[in-house]
Amino acid sequence: MTDKTFLYRIVVKFQDHLNLPYGSAAEVNEFFLQNDILPWQHFLKLFPGIRIAKLFTSISAEEIIAWVNKAKRSDPEYQPPDFLSYYTIDCPHEIKRDELLPMLLSYKVVEQAYTQSGSFIAPPVNANRDPLNCDQGYLNPAPYGIDARYAWNFRGGDGDGNVRFIDMEQGWLLDHESISVETLPLTGINHSHHDHGAAVLGIIMMKDNVEGGIGITPKVNGHVISQWRPDGSPNTADAIMAAIDHLNFGDILLLEAQTRDPLEKDKVWPIEINEAIFQVIRLASALGIVVIEAAGNGNSFNTGSDLDNFTLNNKNIFDPNSSHFRDSGAIIVAAASSTVPHTRIRNSTYGNRVNCYAWGEKVVTVGNYPRSSGIVINTYTRNFSGTSSASAIIAGAAIAVQSIAAALGKPRLSPLQMRKIFSNELFGTPSKNGHAIDKIGVMPDLKKIIDNVLNIPVEKAINQTEQWRYANS
Q: Which ranges constitute the DSSP H helices of 302-434?
């Protein structure tokens, strides 16, 4: 476990292909002591107790290289960094990291360095028997919801099949009566914000039983990965890398997290503003994994922030019209009202980079967020909200589309295909003033997607589904 006095971390990206060691922490420290890549002994005198280690710890260097090579074959336009050049420097609480950071950046071997806080910000169906089902308006036909009820007419529309889904965040109520989700060898620590995680899972995979409501895709093959890694450290980039190791082309990765602005601490943004996290998301996209990313919940003044205005090193990285725009391949999700016409909720982040929206208020799901359920395993809420609820709804929609396509013997959609469909007004519900003004994209309409993209007449699909159910009963 990481020492609790290590509250802050600096992520360092060295220049590519320096052939630095990527072994144990002891091996890494010894290398930097014995070589002149950095004046490490001098740093230790100035900042006693700092520790350097590799950033990616969950899978081996050989496995990372294998995934990168596969991504380059899958996506000819993918230009990966050297992931083995990412390291962390853990700083004791009393260290003035603001003094260490500029010193690191002064060395030519250091390509990038930035601080990362040690804390995270939280972020066949028979629905008639589920008592809260009638309150789950986000399941209803457009323009009110995504029309999950229509998708349930189709084989795979309830998530049944081989499509795998992973939720990445800080913790979950893993023993809740309406959730059945699996952990993985690299899941990490079920650390905190358990009711938040439960609420997210409930939106997607709440069991079709006589309790609570019902998830968008209650039969999906669901798993969880924690931002708190097995060694006790908070490491979102490593968590995403661990998730990649368990996902295939067309699977769904939901990133339920946000991060603080490096300069304006009252603002929060999508987690990909951190370079290492951006690069791992880009790797996932190049491998064909559909990544759903929360846009983030505004700032301390409870108002949303415009991604078009965000700058990193004076570069507008989220503005598609900027020469400095960079695209991770993720589907970025904003939050809107539950009422029609849908308007952006006050604290949702927005911008031209945002692809789609969903309900960001009055969402019925499991758990008791923002309060704690404690040891109780049968709690439910009608008020889950923010880009957390919206992102979960979009993830459920993506699972339904992929599962229906797979059940029909069609190829799974690529991340780019899924994003183009989910952000197209032809297949969704525009916000009140449209994307040009509201900058939150559209809310996917599963009926339009199924009828017009997957090209399935509902009568034929229902007959096929009934035949399949009979054959498998």
A: 386-407, 415-422
